[in-house]
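Listing 4. Sequential folding, example run.
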Amino acid sequence: MTPQDLNGPETYRSTLLRLNSRAWGIAVGLVFGLGLLVATMLLLMKGGEQVGVHLALLGKLLPGYRVTVGGAFIGFGYLFVIGYAIGRVIGSVYNALARGD
């Protein structure tokens, strides 16, 4: 293979169109997990009589999650895993559709 072969438009197209599904999974997982972690911590710092009434409803879907410091880290773990799965699916679907052209 010569250097001229590597500079063809198909090489660039196939390289640019492909996404790293694992990287997307980690990125989306961190955004989801850190979002819940930060939201919980901000509510805890705000304080009040009933802290995070609406956010506490996530405890129905995520066993072990509470609006506490420990619950924030439990929620981070749950949402990181959920976000990782969503990111992997996004990357895989995108790659499958990009190859179809």
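-- end of first protein; second protein begins --
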Amino acid sequence: MQQFWNWKGYQIAWKVEDESNENRMAIVMIHGFGACKEHWRYNQNNISSIAPCYSLDLIGFGESSKPNSQLLYEKKRTNNFQYCFNNWTQQIIDFCNEIVQTPVLIIGNSIGGVIALNASQRLSKECLGVILIDCAQRTMDDKRLAEQSLLMRFLRPVIKTLVRQRLLSSSLFNNAANPTFIEKILKVAYPSGKNINKELIDILFKPTQGKGAEEAFRGFINLFDDHLAPDLLALSTNPVYLIWGEKDPWEPLKEAEQWLNTFECIKSLDIINNAGHCPHDEMPEKVNPILQKIIQEAM
């Protein structure tokens, strides 16, 4: 059942499913960029048979508030929001403390994975573990600039200047916020083509039509210096489990394999053959048993 929570004056949409009669722990699911809580459509109910399972819309997405973006260099304005990992993380921490009120295991897809790692560190013992599904590697971050081509390094200042402009960011957003474009992107993100259906397109398209939807897009494309997953993994004291689509077009499996061999906190890497960036939705029949096994071991 969907509910709303008032967080710092913003409305946050969330829902919980619970068929477990279990109250020792709960699951919190964090969606990726451009998605929402409904992106866990094939997972939340399945997992709820083991433990209460919560999903919520990050501010700027789904049915949560979409305030104007506040970039670092801009003059602070009342009710504007700085779309960044620390602020989204605070949303998750407060949600866990105020709504869930029990130790949690956090699942995050894409940028939701970075948020999950950050939140787990700050929740400390109140977090029992983290499951990263194709976690965002953020290759365009300033801290990874040396890995970029000479041309990209040369163009970076120009790109930064351009994407700050609302005229450009709104134009980019409006070109992308239509069912045809969304379906085209999904065919890249879901290489097998499985579960690309009208329901999924509607799930991703509907929030783009809400007032202020382009502001979260502007805030995100201006995140050039923020948290990187390896930095958070190096500090993690909680167990971390990786689930990765073999054919993810944006977050290469090769880097996830390097993480597995580098960070002691990572306990496993499950590869979903022929899947892309969102294997939990593309191939839930393969991902759900893995999720269930990890959760049961954490209990």
